[in-house]
């Protein structure tokens, strides 16, 4: 969003940043989960595809759907009464229904691997479009409204989600970042990673880049990994990950510039 938004208060500005950061974490986690489903299909491995689809559905039921329900009662409720946002909220509520239907399809044992792959791809596309509307349209509208306290709405969301806080993926046990052998460090484009999903952080806006990466790493299961593409050597990010995950992440450089840095994150069993 290019237009300048003047928040009604500092607290509302901070709330808007917090909402976008959480959205970025969810987007990163979803990217990893969807990639696992697609990888199963690419390897022509039906059992792997079904397992990944079940994991994706479980994450959505634990994270995405409760978040959507909390938004309906708070952010959407505040915007629904405003003439300028009524149609936007109606469309976004309809998208919640679409997301719920896709999650149910992924969770069904009757869904074929091919159908699960299609549902996962659709889920990613709808979710990305939905978040763009929330970040670029809904949040700025509420942030600038003098008669709306976005910070209070965010607090209400936290309260409605507090009952499920212990089950949230972002609250899983932390892991260390352990320096590994430097690995493949040339610029020939050769891939050393063992089929790990790739997160291209170069395409993520700078303001939410770290949050997106944190969400993606939170979704990596023990024994799996993630390959990160960065526009520079992400040393500050690695320091943050070391503080955030004092556990078992092993990091290897697969490529060191000059335009792209490629790092492999392997979560220890």
Which descriptors would you attach to this protein?
five-stranded mixed β-sheet, 8 helices, alpha/beta
Explain this structure.
The protein is of the alpha/beta class and 269 residues long. The chain is built from 8 helices and 5 strands. A 5-stranded mixed β-sheet has the order 1-4-5-3-2, covered by helices on one side. Strand 4 (249-256) and strand 5 (261-267) form a beta hairpin. Residues 166-192 have low confidence and may be disordered.
The main sheet orders its strands as 1-4-5-3-2
* Basic shape: globular
**Protein structure class:** alpha/beta
Rg over CA atoms, rounded to whole Å, is 19 Å
Order of helices and strands: HHHHHHEEHEHEE
Low-confidence stretches: 166-192
Quote the beta fraction. Answer: 5-15%
**Helix content class:** 55-70%
Mean pLDDT: 86
Assembly form of the protein: single chain
Q: What is the terminal-to-terminal distance?
A: 41 Å
Q: In this structure, how is the largest beta sheet organized? A: 5 strands, mixed
- Please give the number of β-strands: 5
Number of helices: 8
Question: What topology emerges from the helices and strands here?
Answer:
Layout: H1 10-42, H2 46-73, H3 75-80, H4 86-107, H5 113-144, H6 150-161, E1 177-179, E2 198-200, H7 206-218, E3 225-230, H8 235-244, E4 249-256, E5 261-267
Parallel strand pairs: 1-4, 2-3
Antiparallel strand pairs: 3-5, 4-5
Helix pairs in contact: 1-2, 1-5, 1-6, 1-7, 2-4, 2-5, 2-6, 4-5
């Amino acid at each position: 969003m290019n237009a300048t938004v003047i928040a009604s208060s500092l607290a509302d500005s901070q709330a808007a940043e917090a909402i976008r950061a959480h959205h970025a974490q969810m987007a990163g986690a979803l990217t990893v989960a969807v990639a696992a489903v697609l990888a199963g299909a690419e390897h022509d491995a039906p059992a792997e595809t079904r397992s990944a689809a079940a994991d994706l559905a479980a994450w959505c039921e634990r994270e995405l759907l409760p978040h959507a329900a909390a938004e309906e009662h708070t952010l959407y409720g505040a915007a629904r009464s405003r003439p300028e946002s009524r149609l936007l909220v109606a469309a976004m509520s309809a998208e919640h229904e679409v997301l719920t239907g896709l999650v149910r399809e992924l969770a069904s044992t009757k869904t074929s691997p091919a159908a699960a792959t299609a549902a996962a791809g659709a889920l990613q596309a709808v979710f990305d479009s939905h978040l763009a509307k929330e970040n670029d349209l809904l949040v700025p509208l509420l942030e600038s409204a003098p008669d709306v306290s976005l910070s209070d709405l965010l607090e209400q969301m936290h309260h409605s989600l507090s009952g499920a806080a212990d089950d949230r993926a972002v609250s899983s046990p932390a892991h260390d970042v352990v320096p590994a052998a430097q690995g493949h460090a040339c610029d020939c484009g050769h891939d050393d990673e063992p089929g790990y999903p790739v997160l291209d952080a170069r395409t993520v806006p700078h303001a939410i880049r770290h949050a997106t990466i944190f969400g993606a790493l939170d979704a990596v299961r023990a024994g799996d990994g993630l390959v990160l593409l960065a526009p520079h050597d992400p040393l500050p990010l690695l320091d943050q990950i070391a503080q955030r995950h004092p556990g078992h992440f092993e990091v290897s450089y697969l490529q060191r510039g000059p335009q792209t840095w490629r790092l492999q994150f392997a979560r220890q069993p």
